[in-house]
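Work Package 4 report. The design task specified in the project plan requires that, given a folded chain encoded as C-alpha cells, an amino acid be chosen for each position. We show below one input record used in the internal validation round.
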C-alpha cells in the first residue's frame, strides 16, 4: 500500500529505489553505471539484515526495563521494515545489499534516496 501511494504522489521525475542504489554502488565502487545491475528485494525486510543484539546486562536482569527495551526494539524494527527498502546490487565483480530510505526534510536538496550497505546478510537470504 505505501509503495502504491508513493507512486501516485510522485508520478513524474521520481528516481526508483533501484536506480538510487545503483548510483551509490557505482560511486562507492568506482564501477561504470552501465555495468551495475540492481533489483528491489521486497521479499527481504531490513530487520532480516540486522544482527540481533542482546540488551545490556543491567536491563536484562530487570523485567520491567527488559520489557520496555524489547518493545522499543520491536517498534524500531517495525518502522524500518515499513519505511525502508532493500536493494540487491551487483557489478564490477562486487555484490551488495543496500538499505535505502527517503531522506528527511533537512537533507541535501535533490537527493531522492539515502542508501547504506547492509553489513550483515544471513545465509538464509538468497542472492542473485
Amino acid at each position: 500500500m505505501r509503495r502504491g501511494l508513493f507512486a501516485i504522489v510522485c508520478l513524474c521525475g521520481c528516481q526508483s529505489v533501484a536506480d538510487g542504489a545503483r548510483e551509490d554502488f557505482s560511486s562507492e565502487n568506482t564501477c561504470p553505471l552501465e555495468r551495475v545491475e540492481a533489483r528491489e528485494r521486497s521479499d527481504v525486510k531490513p530487520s532480516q539484515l540486522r544482527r540481533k543484539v542482546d540488551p545490556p546486562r543491567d536491563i536484562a536482569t530487570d523485567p520491567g526495563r527488559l520489557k520496555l527495551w524489547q518493545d522499543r526494539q520491536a517498534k524500531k524494527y517495525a518502522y524500518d521494515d515499513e519505511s525502508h527498502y532493500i536493494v540487491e546490487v551487483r557489478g564490477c565483480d562486487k555484490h551488495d545489499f543496500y538499505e535505502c530510505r527517503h531522506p528527511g526534510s533537512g537533507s541535501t536538496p535533490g537527493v531522492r534516496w539515502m542508501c547504506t550497505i547492509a553489513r550483515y546478510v544471513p545465509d538464509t537470504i538468497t542472492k542473485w
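Confidence is low (pLDDT under 50) at residues 4-12. Validation will be extended to a larger panel in the next phase.
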